[in-house]
Design a protein that fits this description.
This protein has 545 residues and is of the alpha+beta class. It has helices at residues 12-18, 25-28, 34-39, 155-164, 176-190, 201-211, 240-246, 249-254, 276-279, 289-302, 306-316, 340-345, 350-354, 358-375, 384-392, 428-436, 438-441, 476-485, 500-510, 514-524, and strands at residues 3-5, 52-54, 79-84, 97-102, 105-110, 116-121, 127-132, 135-140, 230-231, 403-406, 412-418, 422-425, 446-449, 452-456, 462-467, 470-474, 495-497, 533-534. The strands form seven sheets. The chain has a four-stranded antiparallel β-sheet with strand order 5-4-7-8, with no helix packed on it. Helix 4 packs across helix 6 (201-211), helix 11 packs parallel to helix 15 (384-392) and helix 11 (306-316) runs antiparallel to helix 20 (514-524).
């Protein structure tokens, strides 16, 4: 009888259907497949490309006569999709309506209390699209490999499970193997295992359990910042953001530093920063306990540094921490200076943002950071640099784009690569001609006559500069980034890199925003919901919010 070599995307159900078996277990429990059956611990759900299955003569033969136990109930030719869905905060997407497009059909339903979906689909299905609320996933069906007894020592299966659990595997930051080791270490830390980066037996067991929704992370509590106020566990506080959202809009604006009339602000009176900008505002340094508490909770959900979030907010709002502050040049508004287009993508508007109190606006801010993380999986919001980049220059969250800004003073050009003449320097007249005769170009980036370039689209040109003895290409965007961020070029070499974005926020955290950032970090260091705060070195009983 024939044997079948498994290919990527095949599963036991699809193979059984191909050979005319209504019950895939007839193949799986055949004595000729005992070696593969045992190597997979009897689990028919994970096959590896290259596995060889013996195909029995007929599905009518009794499985029991083959001498192997039946490991599962007889199945139809349909395959079962079983997913556990969580949001970027790690919370189950429970009781959420979903739409699943697969095999030309559209299936609908609701996730259960654990955020799980269990649906049958055609055995031959290879692709699917899943929509749950504002989230969308494109699924490769039956592409998940085993993590044991495989030629690649389980590497592909481990990597894909880590990716499915939200651990970014970013090959551009070193080799793919180094990226996988870093992701595995993060998983081990989150699940209370020694962070060795080695996939030992306990790590693989815990990874399998987490992937099946049977294990939750036991995240370590970050260390309290040195010199920060003392924070001790006491009775649970009310859920601050929920209380804030329940307030009437007018009442919330009138009491910008309060969440609830019954929740006093233990950090008053406000403490001003020492810089000239802070001196212009009555309450520039946002020592509002409720806001810092909400920011620390947001940072915890995003896996980030609360001090970095407070520092960036302090920076981009011009040291006001105001939810309604506006940039006249771009019409950007609020804590993150969100532009109208970005606000629309987040399901709101700049007018709505300007009318929110600062804690209500943090919900939009969190959605903004989640979107940046989704677009740039390598982003790490525990790094001050990445929090700053997410707001000031999101493209810098891609490790492959280390050089973000180049000074116009060290650039040559603009140039255009002409297929016939090679590199050609372009004058302002040539780009002006293109703008005036754009329709004549008919979608092409050049307008030429008798081999002469009359006009060139400005977008098709580039500049050059010399860095570390090597000529590099410079885009117009890089020149624009440097123009608005030249203060970050502290060594004056004409270049702004990803790491330069850390410096300006670190200065604030060490200077006028120091106290607020330290308090936010101290709140983050405590399990959520229970706090008591005292000023450093204060004697007597602590105030209790």
């Amino acid at each position: 009888m024939p044997s079948h070599t498994v290919h990527q995307g095949e599963c036991l159900s699809s193979i059984a259907k191909r050979y005319g078996f209504s019950d895939p277990m007839v193949i799986w429990t055949d004595a000729a497949n005992k070696d593969l059956h045992d190597r997979r611990d009897g689990d028919a759900n994970v096959l590896y490309p290259g596995d060889v299955l013996f195909i029995p003569e007929s599905g009518a033969r009794s499985v029991k006569k083959r001498g192997l136990p039946i490991a599962a109930a007889a199945a139809s030719s349909a395959r079962k999709l079983h997913l556990f869905l969580r949001d970027p905060r790690g919370q189950p997407l429970a009781e959420q309506a979903f739409t699943l497009e697969v095999g030309g059909e559209t299936l609908t339903g609701t996730t259960d209390a654990a955020g799980a979906i269990v649906r049958e689909m055609p055995a031959e299905a290879a692709k699917a699209r899943l929509d749950v609320g504002r989230y969308r996933w494109d699924l490769d069906i039956a592409h998940l490999n085993p993590i044991a007894s495989t030629p690649d020592e389980g590497t592909s299966g481990i990597v894909e499970r880590l990716r499915n659990l939200g651990y970014a595997i970013e090959p551009s930051a070193g080799s793919p193997l180094e990226a996988a080791v870093r992701a595995l270490r993060r998983f081990q830390r989150d699940f209370g295992l020694p962070a060795t980066g080695h996939a030992d037996e306990e790590t693989m067991r815990r990874l399998e359990a987490a992937h099946k929704g049977e294990a939750a992370p036991a995240r370590e509590v970050p260390a309290q910042a040195e010199g920060a106020p003392a924070v001790r566990l006491v009775e649970a506080l009310p859920a601050t953001p929920a209380l804030c959202a329940a307030l009437a809009r007018k009442e919330g604006r009138a009491r910008a530093n309060a969440v609830s009339p019954a929740t006093p602000n233990v950090l008053r009176p406000p403490r001003k920063g020492t810089c000239a900008l802070c001196a212009q505002h009555e309450d520039c340094l946002d020592n509002d306990h409720n806001f810092l508490l909400a920011t620390s909770e947001m940072a915890r959900r995003l896996g980030g540094d609360a001090g970095a979030f407070v520092g960036v907010i302090h920076l981009v709002t011009g040291h006001t921490c105001s939810p309604s502050v506006k940039d006249p040049g771009s019409n950007a508004v609020g804590l993150l200076q969100i532009a109208p287009g970005t606000a629309a993508e987040l399901g709101t508007s700049t007018a709505s943002l300007a009318g929110m109190c600062r804690i209500a606006q943090l919900e939009v801010a969190e959605a903004y950071f989640e979107a940046r993380k989704q677009a740039y999986p390598a982003a790490d919001f525990s790094e001050i640099r990445d929090v700053a980049l997410a707001v000031l220059e999101p493209d810098g969250l891609d490790p492959a784009h280390d050089l973000l800004g180049v000074s116009a003073s060290i650039c040559r050009g603009p140039f255009f690569d002409d297929p016939g003449a090679g590199r050609v320097e372009i004058s302002d007249d040539v780009t002006a001609y293109y703008k005036a005769h754009r329709r004549e170009a008919g979608g092409r980036s050049v307008i030429s006559q008798d081999g002469e370039l009359l006009g060139v689209d400005e977008k098709a040109t580039y500049y050059t500069a010399t860095k570390d003895g090597q000529e590099i290409r410079v885009t117009r965007r890089q020149r624009a980034v440097y123009k608005r961020s030249s203060a970050l070029d502290r060594d004056g070499d004409g270049f702004v890199t990803r790491d330069d974005y850390r410096a300006v926020v670190e200065d604030l955290i060490a200077g006028c925003a120091k106290e607020a950032c330290e308090r936010a970090r101290a709140l983050q260091a405590v399990p959520p919901g229970e706090y008591e705060i005292t000023a450093p070195g204060a004697a007597g009983a602590a105030k209790k919010p």
